[in-house]
Amino acid sequence: MSGTRLSGVGVSPGRASGPVVRVAEPLPEPPATPAPADQAAEAARIRPAAELVAERLRERAAAADGEARAVLETTAAMAADPALIAQSEQLVAARALPAARAVHEAAAGFATALEAAGGYLAERVRDVHDVRDRLVAELLGLTPPGVPELTGPSVLVARDLAPADTAGLDPAKVLALVTEEGGPTSHTAILARALGIPAVVACRGLLALDAVDGLVVDGEAGTVEVVAGPVAVLAATAGDEPTWSGEGRTSDGRRVKLLANVGSAEDAAAGAAAGAEGVGLFRTEFCYLSATAEPSVAAQRVAYAEVLAPFAGRPVVVRTLDAGADKPLAFLNTEVEPNPALGVRGLRLSRAAVGVLDRQLEAVAAAAEDSGADVSVMAPMVSTAEEAAWFADRARAAGVARVGVMIEVPAAALSAREVLAAVDFVSLGTNDLAQYVFAADRQVGGVAELNDPWQPALLRLVALVGAAATELGRPMGVCGEAAADPALACVLVGLGATSLSMNAAALPRVGARLAATSLDQCQDAARAATAAGDRGTARTAVRAVLG
Amino acid sequence: MPERRVVVASKVGLHARPAAMLARTAAEQSVKVTIRKEGGQPVEAASVLGLMTLGAMHGDEVVLTAEGEGAETALEAVAALIATDLDAS
């Protein structure tokens, strides 16, 4: 087995090696038979198991801090929930179910009630399932699903990672992430970049390997090598966290604003602390997601101003509500669509619910004044120049001086010149643009290779927009995950990007790489990448140019 | 039966962390406290899952009930917590 090499999609650069820890697979549904011989004894197993699971979660909570601690404490409270225990015990008695099955069904009752309560509760349903699985595993004597407690530095191997799996993870002990499924925009990829550790996703054949001692992970090449016997622990960062001046520039002085993507006040604070020059993508959905009714202008104004506050005097691009059938909002009454990615979402939904957009624009304009940030707005899911012009009129009427649109639909990229003529700037959402160019669902691991931002066809489309932006003298930003990859960031600059917006954690690496690269090199890299026949060749060719 | 009406102060409503804190306090009381929205089904206040299914949002009024020795004290403790913005701490 040693020497076996697998390849997937590298989504976070760096090289690391170490012992493997496998994230346990989801549990099968516990069977309803055989009926327990002694129902009272069977029912009596539930409470101690629940208390044991809750105690373990509390121990993990005590060792964690911040958000992770709060998540674990809440999960612990759910595990020992008196109503869940009482209902499970009753199910054993009333229907002669095995304890594990009874817990499974009692939890399903709560999950259904939460689902019925409204859109934002989807995440909580996940928490209920997580607790259920821990209890069922305890009752059946199986390994609970999710990330086991790490005793030392490890390479995590999983089918895919969900936010709940990684909430309590100790970042200091994770050397690299490798998943069989997932894509460049999956939670795994985002987490790895936030932690600054290498990651390879869509690594087919990974889970079929058995008894792997160690792995060497190359997050740039997207390869994984199996090592037999003891494997040297090698951390990718190894103290070489690059420094940058805090001002994005190529080595020969071309300015490229380096901005943060934020979706909450916490993100904004983290972005400012990481030295972001501003915000290239402020996702406003957070303000709406937990609401059953549309938030008032006053409430939105306060919420936005909190996010804008750390960036007083600096540029912030606010994206208007990006909702639709895949991100339903209770008060917008969205219909179920067969293809939500192609349905009434983003700006299309705003045009159907103009009042919601107008009230949001009013709140954004007011919050901009409150905070002193230099605010622009942009619309998501724009397909035509006519849509762009419609949005620009509305935003300007609401008092927002600078207006742009996202380029994430291929039609908008192909009409870049006309779209740019209608607005002040564009911002490329490479994640959705890739999904639409390749007709490949972002959330499906089986098509992850197509969603790789190194695909030359995607980069050629970016080049088209870049050429139009350069010719018209309008700024072109990039706010997709592609901007967080230092080598790809250079390619994007070569293609005409004037700002790059990313997860705050990626800023130092991108800033340092750019500072060491001339605009000529960026343009050479861009030519090499767009001329390549496939994504692998594109990577290799760019590496050769950038050195 | 002793009853108390109180408006939810937590911005995120009674779910996640505020629900966990409330459930813990309710579980510490000597009597069982139930909570409901006007016209809704009561749930056990000590059950974090029950609290979440209640779907009580910021600004909603909820009705607390308890019975027996110590009911007033229990209602007082639970009501005070609901009237606090638990997510701010």
TrEMBL record, chain A:
PROSITE patterns, sorted: PEP_ENZYMES_2, PEP_ENZYMES_PHOS_SITE
Catalytic activity: L-histidyl-[protein] + phosphoenolpyruvate = N(pros)-phospho-L-histidyl-[protein] + pyruvate
Binding site for phosphoenolpyruvate: R283, R319, N431, D432, R442
Enzyme Commission numbers on file: 2.7.3.9
Residues covered by the PEP-utilising enzyme mobile domain: 153-222
Gene Ontology molecular-function annotations: kinase activity; metal ion binding; phosphoenolpyruvate-protein phosphotransferase activity
Statement: the UniProt record of this protein carries the keyword Transport: yes
Subcellular location: Cytoplasm
Presence of the UniProt keyword Ubl conjugation in the record: no
Gene Ontology CC entries for this record: cytoplasm
Record SUPFAM superfamilies: Enzyme I of the PEP:sugar phosphotransferase system HPr-binding (sub)domain (SSF47831), Phosphoenolpyruvate/pyruvate domain (SSF51621), Phosphohistidine domain (SSF52009)
Catalytic residues (UniProt): H187, C479
Segments for region (Disordered): 1-42
Keyword tags: Cytoplasm, Kinase, Magnesium, Metal-binding, Phosphotransferase system, Pyruvate, Sugar transport, Transferase, Transport
Binding site for Mg(2+): E408, D432
GO biological process: phosphoenolpyruvate-dependent sugar phosphotransferase system
Residue span, Phosphotransferase system enzyme I N-terminal domain: 8-124
Record function comment: General (non sugar-specific) component of the phosphoenolpyruvate-dependent sugar phosphotransferase system (sugar PTS). This major carbohydrate active-transport system catalyzes the phosphorylation of incoming sugar substrates concomitantly with their translocation across the cell membrane. Enzyme I transfers the phosphoryl group from phosphoenolpyruvate (PEP) to the phosphoryl carrier protein (HPr).
PANTHER family named among the record's database cross-references: PHOSPHOENOLPYRUVATE-PROTEIN PHOSPHOTRANSFERASE
Family assignment from sequence similarity: Belongs to the PEP-utilizing enzyme family.
Name of the protein in its database record: Phosphoenolpyruvate-protein phosphotransferase
UniProtKB/TrEMBL annotation, chain B:
PROSITE patterns, A to Z: PTS_HPR_DOM, PTS_HPR_HIS
Domain HPr: start-end pairs: 1-89
Localization (cell): Cytoplasm
Keywords: Cytoplasm, Phosphotransferase system
Segments passing through the bilayer: none
Pfam family, one: PTS-HPr
GO biological process entries: phosphoenolpyruvate-dependent sugar phosphotransferase system
CDD domains associated with the record: PTS-HPr_like (cd00367)
Signal peptide range in chain numbering: none
GO cellular component: cytoplasm
PANTHER family given in the database record: PHOSPHOCARRIER PROTEIN HPR, PHOSPHOCARRIER PROTEIN NPR
Function of the protein: General (non sugar-specific) component of the phosphoenolpyruvate-dependent sugar phosphotransferase system (sugar PTS). This major carbohydrate active-transport system catalyzes the phosphorylation of incoming sugar substrates concomitantly with their translocation across the cell membrane. The phosphoryl group from phosphoenolpyruvate (PEP) is transferred to the phosphoryl carrier protein HPr by enzyme I. Phospho-HPr then transfers it to the PTS EIIA domain.
Protein name (record): Phosphocarrier protein HPr
Species per Swiss-Prot/TrEMBL record: Streptoalloteichus hindustanus
